[in-house]
């Protein structure tokens, strides 16, 4: 085993075995994408037996040269990365993921803050929402414009806010004509919860079996348990 | 092309109203398309007499229209019969039509139309005989007042003269194709080919002037005809009038047949639907403004599925708003503000100080909400966001992009998308990318045209189910319902209370679902 000092190396990799060196080089070359252990074995120039690979990986981890990260596309698989890199958005899922799952609490908090600011401002542009959140000091770390945009888009999909274009007058005074703005969805279904439609108000509308229900079939309106429950006064 | 449950629902309506025999003939025409009497007999295996009687009933009730086609090589082809699917659907809406009438006209008008709906078509004499047979003391019916009532209804386009009994349908050459029907009232868009049903209905319609005119035998009533006939030259018209008077109005009272004009009622229901939708989205003020705009412009509408209303200025709108009791408290600023709100939602188009209702937009939003509601209730909140994303984007999106934008877990998104696809709510495409490694991507899309047809079929299915369940429940408690009130004690009374609530819930659900069917099929 050679112990060569590498003056320009940026890792304490001076006590690596040849096998460890091979494996470490492959993993490090993948930078912030990391690599699945099985893929890594395929990329090695030599065919190493499994027990050697496992032992080397463990050793590299103990020397704090590599770490295990979660790849949200394949959570069950062991994914390795050099310690100096942060997992890319592609494998971590981005700002909204934490340890491979959506950080639902965080998302809920950001959604609620954005909605609060939009209601307060009555009509808000993305910049307006962003400034308003910053001033409120609700978050320790500043949210990026992209994060705010993603959350606002989700609020539109949730039908809690609507997207409108400024006409430059009335409530849009001070907003350039044509600029995209957001407003709270006014009454109707009570904003957020859509008003139940006619089809959705009856058992058939929400029935998962509607495609196999027939007038005289095994599943039919006469035998339907959802109807029976609905009509159970 | 009719959907499966559209056909089943229509057949069920006809069975309930006219029995199995008539329904069998109707179903044959629904499934096979227009047929001659011979072919109906062949397919249904009924006797000639039975087929004839069934067709007569269906024609009388405006559910079937006869027609002939021109043969290039000589004599006319045999008479064929085409079913009028839309008119069968209207049969469950009669109560809605009468409600509209009762809000705009007096009781005599309502009763006259009630007769027309019950009997399908009547002459003035038959209307008079019917009114006479049920007249109450102190409320005698006379022919003149009945004629006046009829004129009122015809002028308002709620009643019309019956169409030609066997119009000749001209074949459309290939070059003419859909272009021939440009501007035709039944084609949805320019270029969309008309169905045979639509072509026959149009061919059978009398000229507009004739369609909405009442023959009278009093000279002073000629003025009424002048109001109705706007495309007849004066010389012709005078000659026509003289001939009519000479031919004796009495004979016409017995020969000219009238029927309810479903188009008029559907147009009114469309307006009402738009007003209700605006009220739900905005407020009463906006609803009053829309209602006023409709009041001022509805007479200019040429067809049911009008895209936009005639443009109006702010002052014209305000004048109309303050005519109604509800609008009397509104100031000009209030009206202006409502118009701005309506404009924000694109319900009203504003350009150079004139305002025009965008019916298509209001209806599109209402339809979206109906479908999104089903998705939300059936598949959950995550699916709701996914569906709305795909519906708004209108193009193919990849699974990861969908899960990122909608904040759905990467492992959950494919399952939801697959379920929506399996149930016909989404289209799916596979994209294989070959590079260092072959990767497969799944792309998803909402195709409105296909989906709307699918949703409408589900609505027909649900309408049929509601109807079958009502019959089943009432049948089960038939004896109880026939029991006199004093014999219903203890648990019997409880069961009676239950069946009453069941009936109210099911029947009101049927009416509400029919509003949705109107939204997707007729509006």
From TrEMBL, chain A:
It comes from the Eukaryota. Keywords: DNA-directed RNA polymerase, Nucleus, Transcription. It holds the Pfam family RNA_pol_Rpc34. InterPro entries: RNA_pol_Rpc34 (IPR007832), RNA_pol_Rpc34-like (IPR016049), WH-like_DNA-bd_sf (IPR036388), WH_DNA-bd_sf (IPR036390). It is found in: Nucleus. GO terms for biological process: transcription by RNA polymerase III. Belongs to the eukaryotic RPC34/RPC39 RNA polymerase subunit family. This is DNA-directed RNA polymerase III subunit RPC6. It comes from Citrus unshiu. The lineage of its organism: Eukaryota, Viridiplantae, Streptophyta, Embryophyta, Tracheophyta.
TrEMBL record, chain B:
Keywords: DNA-directed RNA polymerase, Nucleus, Transcription. GO terms for cellular component: RNA polymerase III complex. It is found in: Nucleus. One of its GO terms (molecular function) is single-stranded DNA binding. DNA-dependent RNA polymerase catalyzes the transcription of DNA into RNA using the four ribonucleoside triphosphates as substrates. Specific core component of RNA polymerase III which synthesizes small RNAs, such as 5S rRNA and tRNAs. Belongs to the eukaryotic RPC3/POLR3C RNA polymerase subunit family. This is DNA-directed RNA polymerase III subunit RPC3. The lineage of its organism: Eukaryota, Viridiplantae, Streptophyta, Embryophyta, Tracheophyta.
